[in-house]
Amino acid sequence: MDLIKNPSTLWRGVALCLGIALPAWLLGKQFEVVGGPVFAILIGMVLALVLRGRSTASLDAGVKYTSKKVLQYAVILLGFGLNLGQIAQVGATSLPIIVSTIATSLVLAFVLSRALKIPGKIATLVGVGSSICGGSAIAATAPVIDADDEEITQGISVIFLFNIIAALVFPALGMALGLTNEGFGLFAGTAVNDTSSVTAAAAAWDGMHPGANTLDAATIVKLTRTLAIIPITLALAVWQMRQAKRAAAAGEGDSAVAGTFDLKRIFPFFIVFFVLASVVTTVFALPAAVTAPIKELSKFFIIMAMAAIGFNTDVVKLLRTGGKPILMGFVCWVGIALVSLGMQHVLGIW
After folding, report:
1. Which contiguous run of DSSP H or E holds residue 347?
2. DSSP class of residue 286?
3. Closest by alpha carbon to 347, among 186, 110, 196?
4. Rounded to the nearest 5°, which phi and psi values hold at 129?
5. What is the pLDDT of residues 295-320, one digit of tens each?
6. 68 — phi, psi (to 5°)?
7. Are residues 134 and 268 in contact, defined by beta-carbon separation less than 8 angstroms?
């Protein structure tokens, strides 16, 4: 059944997610280092525990719609926050470091997924979340690889843990290493996962170094990293299509995939709209007064989607299977930090 064509089945579940998202959004404003998405997941999981044993069938359609479609709408709106011209001018110097850190995280995630026998979808989410832009990258990647809600929660939880550690530890670490203001801006922008934690770390550094103004530099570096969503998701989509074609040819796998090969089902068309939104922002030089509310709506949609995902997550299973993904996230996080610092040394920035 197509949920979009049957809106009457959606409203209860969507209203539930909206009800969770509002307090989560407010809490995220008060505790930015944690962020609204994490609060939404936690509230959703607690509510699911409270309602365990009761019938929630009337909520299922709306919750599923929010976790899938609203999440894609959030990614599309995220594109309005990217001015490609500004990123090209200011973010170009950081490109070698960004490419190196992204490659490091993805390689480490792949190797560890094989060595520790971590499910491929969880490894992919942790790898792209660590290397690109935390929750936004996971939001963009999850529909492409058809990750379920528990896998998304696992990835977000790992990213959240190391976001907090980075925001608290990196300013002091930068001081101890003797980083310049430019160097710390690059370090925060390339080695911290999520935008909220990048801004928290850079703001803390600026507080320790009045007039440093690393916040703007770190944010632009972070936005440059965000553009990696495009090639990564498209590469994953190509891989998914090849897998689907092989399954269809062999008559194997899930009947939804193997029975008929459906490009529309697999290809991430929402990423095309994400790119178009970025192009519109760049070509028409949309002012902050226009893009800021759209970016805020994008963040709120992500919080709504995380509420749905939290509501659909089995907390007991999550805790039981969480050790290996956390280890993977730690290794990726340390690897990215070391490569970021190492590349700065090679390039003569630090």
Report:
1. helix 323-347
2. -
3. 186
4. -65, -40
5. 899 989 999 999 998 898 877 777 77
6. -105, -65
7. no
